[in-house]
Model the fold of this input.
Amino acid sequence: MSAVIFHLIDDPDTEAFWFYAAELCAEAAEAGHMTYVVCANLAHVESFDDYLWGYKPDAFVPHTADPEDIAHAPIFLGVDVAAGGFDYVINLSGKPIERVAERVQLDELVDANPANRDAARARWRAYQATGTKPVHRQIAQVPRDDR
Done:
């Protein structure tokens, strides 16, 4: 059965969501998990790609948004909520991920925006309908190193 984890980020800093997402990507890469990061659109992919390159001066997160380079980086950025072939998924898109039962782990990141929280509740119910038992992690503040 898939692990579905909703990370509810209450930190009001506008960068907290992105920093937390980058840290999850770094952890996945370090663990050797081929991970698909689902973004809302191509502009979001480009923005997060740029963010991953410099979110911490001492960190490198091997990633790509180019399907031809997927074999060379454990983190792949894309927009297809139905994409197969990935056991680990980090969802930044706000849309439900398809084929949840095929995943080892799905991480749903949700900021404090009330509309985004409502959409997350709908995704929670949709995942429950597939037989998964989502859990949540309340993130009051995202710890960041001073830059």
